[in-house]
């Protein structure tokens, strides 16, 4: 009999999915299912293009599901987030604690009563997965899941990799749970199988740090090293001093950050730092970080080398997210819930992974976006790469309409696009940007987006949502980054380069703020679009082609390829009140 590991089983397991199985309570499988009127909760027309149905799933295979309960006051959470994030607010930087933030999304008494009554009637034990209690976890067999959710779970083969997963194309929930349960995950959401990494690597000749920053800046058109970025963006080399100011770097898909590679990188490009400087390690869902040279990951290495190597002496944490949580999106949820459970999460979190917005149901994206809002209300700056496919989405591909990228489109995170070249710095041709189909334009960027849309006119009418949240918010260099990978030198490209770069700027500003007795910057966007709007190098050339178009163009002010522009540390420092 083929054995399936919870939600996903594959004969050749690869780093494509994550799980929180250790947190899930076992199911009492005795007893019959109690039937009630059913409501179709989600139905797909068919599997994604890369998946084909192999056959019915083995009935005794155990699956793990997450139940998203309706959050009591997400509008109140958004208001609280803006109250602590708007520089003009009397509550600016008066951040919430863990319990205060969780209270806004805790399910109502009616919701808890309805869901608990249903679980008890089914003899199901559920585990609470979040501090707010808005996610529950259950384990059930395929036959029981088919009965509970009036579903037909089947085995689907991923044609490109040969990997297999168990999913259904539709499911129902009892009528009495409508309005109380927003999602059963993963059910109809298929795994991504590594489509969320698009970093490109090629061999490179190392360029050692030079004494003259003028000479370094002149070389940046050919290769980016830390001293280039320090020169271009006035990033200080002065070591940070505040141990309470921490910097989180996430890793997925079995991408491991290698300490020996980091030491070689620092010895080559930051000889003023101790080459024994490193990062600490934390695990989510059984994530590991082996240190064999062959285990090194290009993505994980660039994320750690350009955070440790730029945010000098800011304590950096590499958070490795393990496999098998129903897909990469489950891993995204797990790492945020892990941080929400902490009393003092890192003040900055950078993530260089993402996917296309249309890959997941809005109910899941909205719940995850609200988790980011909780962290933001607690004083955490969350940054995501905007993607590397221009207007085609996370990765270049065929498309009839422009493809927005999530989580970059979540209005409660800061999305980072990419630039290339110097004198002038121009928008990276690959830098994804555009407008969300899920969220409306948030108040903090309405003026900036409106100005751009006036410039754009009728161009691309019907190809994008002109009333959507615009992304990216900011940008930084994203081409020709030199990194160390398996003790060799490579050149890397992508918004995976620009995101840790910009995040490092924020981590250093936070160090100065904490040293001055001030709170960290927290959710950045309201500040970026107001007090800090003039603290950027405005990028006015470049475009991001895709979908058989030349894409959006960079122009004066905000644009959906470079955002507000690239950072000027000295000006940002002044905007932060330092």
Automatic annotation (TrEMBL):
Recorded GO MF terms: metal ion binding; serine-type endopeptidase activity; tripeptidyl-peptidase activity
GO terms, biological process: proteolysis
Cofactor(s) essential for the protein: Ca(2+)
EC class name: hydrolase
Leader sequence residues: none
Domain Peptidase S53 stretches: 223-578
E.C. number: 3.4.14.10
Catalytic activity of the protein: Release of an N-terminal tripeptide from a polypeptide
Gene3D superfamilies tied to this protein: Peptidase S8/S53 domain (3.40.50.200)
Active-site residue list: 299 (charge relay system), 303 (charge relay system), 496 (charge relay system)
PANTHER family according to UniProt: PROTEASE S8 TRIPEPTIDYL PEPTIDASE I CLN2, TRIPEPTIDYL-PEPTIDASE 1
Descriptive protein name: tripeptidyl-peptidase II
Organism: Fibroporia radiculosa
